[in-house]
Known about the structure:
The protein has one domain: Cyclic Phosphodiesterase, Chain: A (Alpha-Beta Complex). The chain has helices at 18-34, 61-74, 107-120, 144-151, 153-157, 173-180, 216-228, and strands spanning 7-16, 49-57, 82-93, 96-103, 124-125, 165-172, 187-189, 191-199, 205-213. 34% of the residues lie in helices and 30% in strands. By secondary structure, it is α+β, with helices and mostly antiparallel strands. The relative contact order is 0.26. It is built from seven helices and nine strands; from the N terminus they run βαβαββαβααβαβββα. The strands form two sheets. The protein has a five-stranded antiparallel sheet with strand order 5-2-1-8-9. Strands 6-4-3-7 form a four-stranded antiparallel sheet.
Amino acid sequence: MNNNPELTAIDVLLTPDEIIVKKALEINKQLMEEYPNGFKLDESHIPHISILQNYVRTKDLEKVYKAVEKVITSENITSLQLKAVKLICNGSIDEQGVAVIVISPVEILLNFQSKLIDILKPFMENNGTAAAYVTSEDDPNINDSTLEYIENFIPDHSGSNFIPHITVGIKGMESLEKLVNEPFTPIIFSPVSIGVYQLGNNGTASRVLKEWTISRTSQRILENIKKSYIK
């Protein structure tokens, strides 16, 4: 018996539509201009709403996809409408504040997360290492805060502790505080796809493993969104 199975760090997530993606890209561009060492939202750092992050056995990924698909069919995600309500500083990375757009939690999201946790438990493992993540020449290491965050995602970020959000970049704490205090007009939007992604450093959704578009219209929207990353 293998007591140290190969693991993959995954993120089951929602890809939002172009309305909120446009806002996320605008904020990210501003943050990058003021802090070039931050991360740019692109196809390797997509704007998304994380529902569940955890380690699963790599050999069970196909079973994970089937389990996620089963939950998708049981929830009315196709009619889901969400509201982005504010921009906040949500923790820090290397002494820089993390800027996120907060989404109002709704019952469907909470149910979706709860069912995902239950159905994926047989495939989950603890004590994941950097080998479970996507790395690159530009970002070759996985920091300890990422490893800790994913390890503790379920107790710290599920149920009553779940704060749906879209991470849009990082910036110095003092200047970010000024940005989050600016007026934020609420935005109504919908998800266009549900995906299982492999995580990169700092919880970025780096590599799509499996994706389900919500409708034919959503497929076209998703394609247009991905084109917008390279503009």
